[in-house]
Amino acid sequence: MRRLVLIAVPYLWLLTLFLIPFLIVLKISLSDTALSIPPYTPTLDLGAGWTGVKEFFAGLDFENFWFLTTDELYWKAYLSSLQIAFLSTIMTLIVGYPIAYGMAQAPDEWRPTLMLLVILPFWTSFLIRVYAWMGILSREGLLNQFLLWTGVIDAPVKILNTDTAVYIGIVYTYLPFMVLPIYATLEKLDESLLEAAEDLGCSRASAFWLVTVPLSKSGIIAGCFLVFIPALGEFVIPSLLGGSQTLMIGKVLWEEFFNNRDWPIASAVAVVLLLILIVPIILFQRNEQKQREAEG
Amino acid sequence: MAQTVFEPWNDPDQEPLIQFRNVTKRFGDFTAIDNLSLDIFEREFFALLGPSGCGKTTMMRMLAGFEGVSEGAIYLSGKDIAPVPPNKRAVNMMFQSYALFPHLSVWDNIAFGLKRDRLPKKAIGDRVSEMLQLTRLEKFAHRKPHQISGGQRQRVALARSLAKAPKLLLLDEPLGALDKKLRQDTQFELMDIQEKTGTTFVIVTHDQEEAMTVASRVAVMDEGRLIQVDTPAQIYESPNSLYVADFIGDVNIIEGHAKKSGDGYDITFAEGQPVLHAKTSRDLGSAGKCYLAIRPEKVTVSAEKPEGRTNLVKGTILDIAYLGNLSTYHVKLASGQIIKAQTANTRRIARRDLTWEDEVWLSWTETAAVVLEV
Amino acid sequence: MRNHLLTAAASLALFAGMATAEEVRVYNWSDYIDEDLLDKFEEETGIDLVYDVFDSNEVLETKMLAGGSGYDVVVPSGTFLQRQITAGAFQKLDKSKLPNIENMWDVVEKRTEQYDPDNAYSINYMWGTTGLGVNVGKVREVLGDDAPINSLALVFDPANMEKLADCGVHFLDAPAEMIPAALKYIGEDPNSHDPDVIAKAEGVFEPVRPYIQKFHSSEYINALANGDICVAVGWSGDILQARDRADEAGNDVEIVYNAPVEGAQMWFDQMAIPVDAPNPDGAHKFLNFIMDAENMAAASNYVYYANGNKASQEYLLEDVIGDPSIYPDEATLENLFTTTPYDARVQRVVTRLWTKIKSGT
């Protein structure tokens, strides 16, 4: 009995925080937009009994999903989001791995401090940090001033309101999500494995590629998913740092919801986004599972 | 059996495989290895024995190339190895933790070093098969390290470190993680493999029994110095110091005053106790304080006073430790010393006649005890 | 109208709370009132005032349409108000509880009637125009002394925009403002709901698109004031705020606001009471308080927007009532146009067109 209760807890969690909201969104995505409160129809009228339920289901259809295929905007936005999420994940990995590696190599007494430094930005509002980047990246911003001062450039370059700024923003914001899981695997890495690799004929560099990297694979995968999944639906960073040409599905979703007031279409966009995410999420779960088995 | 006794260290014509020449290693203020010189010969199974922190692991890591020397030099086949990085040394190491690559199968673990040498595929396959056969791991070739037992892992580690046919194999506490029974089996397996491959083995251990079992020679270390380097029998039978005598096996230590007498020394150790005599070729110099070390199994315990023994003392049984194959008697002398005597239990119910509080006689021969300087 | 976007995302955590003391919850645009008035209201009525702010009509509308916002007074703009009335989001005002309603200005009431017939659901709070914020010095430097700083040609003529690109031009990220302006520029009906007419706006934006630094509905205030950009299409009060900030900073940046001579869009922010307001009685008290001539004047003096309260005009500062960019003269007033809300189908066309204009997709 107690076992049953314990098992029920995560399922209940999943049910209330994922499944029920998802079903609500799915239901709205099958509805039609209307100028009313709430702004879609039909709504479930339980007072009308069985006929009410029947009418409710009769009013649902996949029209909105069909609509998404009629305008190139949507698939272009999905593709562009996938591209931005993918590239920024790779960049976050390239930036984050050396940080995690450095932390894992640091003397024991330094590690809590370094860990704190990685987490520290979370103590400030995300919005404020993104705004700070606006100051850094703007035409008169610190970055341009620095580049001018070093002589790398001789006229300010436009960084803010370009895709570059979006990449910088995503890499910056999600960096801890990449660093921490990689650090966790690197920290566990047995130093003697590297010595063994060297002993068996590896140079330092090849020991890194043949031993350190494969053994931190689970951390790399976890970090990549933790970055990729939220980056795909990212809205705030492209809105604030990106230019108007930055096409991301999060922005399209916003426009459907707020500008067009079309909750059903917005919900359909969200449902498709979720379906796109389900593939990496399942892969992520399988990675975790494999990891647990390997450790068990 | 070998026709000639394997004692290259006694042959002045033999060129040592490894030479430590006045090697000192410091970590900051701490001196791990203190002006140490040592020769190790080809085909030896050499044990570095000592308590933790004695410097034995540092010596091994210097051989592997993970530590440099602060002073002095190490030669491998006559060449200074200081400038050779670990991955270029014809030395392989079996790690205490085994350091098996968890992401690679047993087969790939063994092949790891061979692949680094860019050997042809066929050669790698053959060599790995050979190693798998040698260590009886054929059935587990495709398992991952976490899917096999501790003993099997140990054998994988051994196979991996032997795969490149190194001139020298270093074994860092190779059996430490195994339970006792498995450890004993594995010791013989190690000796067997060492003999078959003809590789020079240097083993680091803190387990004196293990060192005694496997090694052709044992170096007993303490605080960065070699205390005694000798065959196991010599180390056991003629320790050169109280430290060695005490570290290796069980021993009774009697403190006393030595006086040159004939072919040895007379030792007085307590008021009212008889003078003991020990034969030795060792010269203690001017007579004075000394230690007498006697292995318990060399002490005979009897209820009746035996006749014609030079070293004979009387005491009462304080304790009897029954170990199955052996019994150890703790006998207290009138002067307060406690002497342990060990008897093999050759009969099923042994020595029923001796029990607690019994008065007994302890005796040993003139050659049984070793006289040691203070 | 005004500030679009975002902080909304952070501020979505508001919901109706049941309090013991009587309270009125007001949801207004950010930086849109003299906060002394809030204290004054509490003192006069003894009602606790909970004052929250938003910065986009879209966010407000989403809350209204979702229902159960918990607010007693909200401030949508005219077109949004009209749509929300149709959706049934507001309750009719009980004018017997609003004695100060006689202070209201018929000139404005006449115009707001097109959104809210008989002004049955709302009172006007502020109104203004959408026009051009210009950094005079910089623009003259680039375009010469005869730069058309009071004409839409400044921002819709590619020849001008090409020259201005380097010193920076911001457009509002609000299709309901920008598309009517573009239509007006090419002589079409700015209030057209015909998709074919609306589509013509694209032809106006396309040639100038490469020279637009940013589409944003609030950043231009700071950008103008700091001298980072030299032209912004924006809301009158915001640009006047930028003007004052530049004055205070003393950075030699001179900002002027002009309603374009071609005609400018006139907009109205209306106070209304949600249909499910927890305290409609308190809401009426608040509306009545705001319609007090002196109170309304205090608000306008503070935010530099014109209001719809005739009686308040005698209390307005000279640099408010006397500034034609706030209170336009008769002729300019005639030249202002208003728009009506798009229905869902047209709204989609407009949004889609706007996305295409901005992103090229």
Task: Describe the protein.
The complex is a heterotrimer of chains A (296), B (374) and C (361). Helices cover 75% and strands 1% of the residues of chain A. Chain A has 14 helices and 2 strands; from the N terminus they run H-E-E-H-H-H-H-H-H-H-H-H-H-H-H-H. In chain A, a hairpin with a 6-residue loop joins strand 1 and strand 2. In chain A, helix 8 packs antiparallel against helix 11 and helix 9 crosses helix 10. The longest helix of chain A has 34 residues. Chain B has 2 domains: 236 residues, 3-Layer(aba) Sandwich (Rossmann fold); 123 residues, Nucleic acid-binding proteins (OB fold (Dihydrolipoamide Acetyltransferase, E2P), Beta Barrel), CATH 2.40.50. Chain B is built from 8 helices and 20 strands. Chain B has a 6-stranded mixed sheet with strand order 6-7-8-3-9-10, with helices on both faces. A 5-stranded antiparallel sheet of chain B has the order 13-12-11-14-20. In chain B, helix 2 crosses helix 3 and helix 2 packs parallel to helix 4. The model of chain B has no long low-confidence stretch (mean pLDDT 89). In chain C, helix 2 links the parallel strand 1 and strand 2. Chain C is globular. The chains are: A mainly alpha (296), B alpha+beta (374), C alpha/beta (361). Chains in contact: A-B, A-C. Chains A and C meet through helix 4, helix 12 and helix 13 of A and helix 1, helix 3, strand 6 and helix 17 of C.
Binned strand content of chain C:
5-15%
Tell me what the CATH architecture of the largest domain in chain C is: 3-Layer(aba) Sandwich
Shape of chain A: globular
String of helices and strands of chain A: HEEHHHHHHHHHHHHH
Number of domains in the coordinates of chain C? 2
Helix content of chain C: 40-55%
Q: Shape of chain C, please?
A: globular
Instruction: Show unreliable segments of chain A.
Output: none
Overall number of strands of chain A: 2
Q: What series of H and E elements makes up the topology of chain C?
A: HEHEHEHHEHHHEHHEHEHEEHHEHHH
Assembly context of the chains: heterotrimer
Features:
heterotrimer; A: 296 residues; mainly alpha; two-stranded antiparallel sheet; 2 strands; 1% strand; B: 374 residues; alpha+beta; Rossmann fold; 5-stranded antiparallel sheet; 8 helices; 22% helix
